[in-house]
Design brief:
By secondary structure, the protein is of the alpha/beta class. It is built from 9 helices and 10 strands. Strand 6, helix 5 and strand 7 form a beta-alpha-beta unit. It starts with a strand and ends with a helix. About 45% of the residues are buried.
Length: about 240
Amino acid sequence: MIIQACINGARPAGFHPALPLTAVDMARDGAACLSAGAAELHIHPRVTPDREGLAAVDETVLAVRKACPGTLLGVSTGAWIEGDEHQTRARIAAWTHPPDYASVNLSESDAPAIMDLLRQRHIGIEAGLATAADAERFVKLRNHDGVLRVLVEVEEQELPSARLIVEEIAAVLEKYGIRRPILLHGVDATVWPLLDLARRRRWSTRIGFEDGKFLKDGSLARDNPHLVSEAARHLRPACAN
């Protein structure tokens, strides 16, 4: 299992004073997260500090790779980023410095087309599943077994319901014999409980401001590396196996 650092997501500038919003800051923060125990990085490039944009991927990937050579680097293709399916595809097709992988939300209508485009560009795919319905859609796609990993990402804030969703998704994957690596993460109230569930299931996980800003004890983290170091300490016995 690994820890992926998800350093910013769609969080607004006021979310935390240490939120990295520029390519330079993402590169610096990413390098610090790797030193703290992260194995790879998931970032949301910004065309301005207040706006995500797939047009910023080239500049950001170059900056982060310079600071973090050899590290796997992923971005999101979320439909909200461009707000238009054709624009999303055009931006991805135009990348001259593509990431190593990109996450695709199976809840989005254009997910199959985005996945096909990423394959054409030899970019790895994180198949994002937030519900059992997403999992059912995923397993029925051709080439579903060719993804880099399955990303189980649960936004439900009530922990019993969140755990149930995880088990429902896992049941679908098991039913169809999916053997791709799984990365599980929660958001805000479920970050640490689902990180602990990932440890018990020996799945990979992630931590960072995209998912939450608080430590397990409820105190505010100083920055992303602080979150990563605490996650690494919590997961160390599992990561060693």
